[in-house]
Amino acid sequence: MELLSATLDRVKPSPTIAVTTKAAELKAAGRDIIALGAGEPDFDTPQNIKDAAVAAINAGKTKYTAVDGIPELKQAICAKFKRDNRLNYTPSQISVGTGGKQILYNALRATMNPGEEVVIPAPYWVSYPDMVLLAGGTPVIAPATLENNFKLTPEALEEAITPKTKWFIFNSPSNPTGAGYSRDELKALTDVLMRHPHVWVMSDDMYEHLAYDGFAFCTPAEVEPALYDRTLTVNGVSKAYAMTGWRIGYAAGPEKLIGAMRKIQSQSTSNPCTISQWAAVEALNGTQDYIAENNEMFVRRRNLVVEMLSAIPGVTCPTPEGAFYVYPSISGLIGKTSAAGTKITDDETFATALLEETGVAVVFGAAFGLSPNFRVSYATSDEALKEACTRIQTFCAGLM
User: Fold this and answer.
1) Which domains are assigned to the chain?
2) What are the angstrom distances between the C-alpha of 311 and each of 304, 323, 328, 361, 394?
3) pLDDT digit string, tens, across residues 205-221
4) 13 pLDDT exceeds 80?
């Protein structure tokens, strides 16, 4: 009898984690490595949040909690949605999980049946398709091309929807491109969804507060209130509050769906870390001033990276509206050979050669469903970014 489940044959390990792990191994072996693969801010968690966690420990708040979140955190999340998104929810409509990834997986696991489809715009966060496959569904990829600034058109969404479509996964600002949808652009998509009442909307708003140059964030249930009853709005504290390791994600949606997600979580992880929950209460209820301060640094870093990569012949690097990624195209470099003799046949060989020959770790575009590109995370120091981009320029200049 085979030990492992056949389901594992349908999925692959996370490429972003693989790149980060490889970079760490090379660095431990003594290589001079600049890792631009990880999707996490380099800032420390704000002091008020850390203080709240310590206070929770000292107060003995270290026991099991309700499966999907303490009442205080659910109230803070309801207040956040009302304050930031003009969406009204009650605590019974809130789910708190161990990071946004668990929230997304719980929702898919609780709703998908064999043969049902999920529309995913590409480029996409690497985990979306594999989570759909793990949940027994079928991912349907809808391309969002460079020509459209990596944003899905209403026509492409309409074409991807079938009678089997269960969910549409939406992410703005986007990982990996940083592309953000304006209200008008999002309204054009929600107009399509209104014509297909069997399609539910999973809006991944994790990068909501990382928006630049006056870009105004909006979310589907806010833009089209008629979608409220079939939308799961997902968010978390990882990115805006530099709390990636605290592992707190949350979502708001219809009570029936939230209850189903609670059932899944009750038989898998049970409650998220109690201390992290109390820290998240402070993150959402406390001062938000450092978000704007951090964003100023992200804008400076984004501009540095876009300018240096755009200066490379054969590379096209759009300026993103948010998040902390750029997703340059290398279509002009395919077919060339590196100084060390590596033929650049696709973005994966490009990223591999770049790491081996220069020590710069990036994630190849095929991992995100659209090639030939690569993703750079600029959530690191100006000095490291400048050195990394200089190495990328030198590497590309040596291509023949």
Assistant:
1) 6-44+290-397 (3.90.1150.10), 51-285 (3.40.640.10)
2) 11, 22, 12, 20, 11
3) 999 999 999 999 999 99
4) no
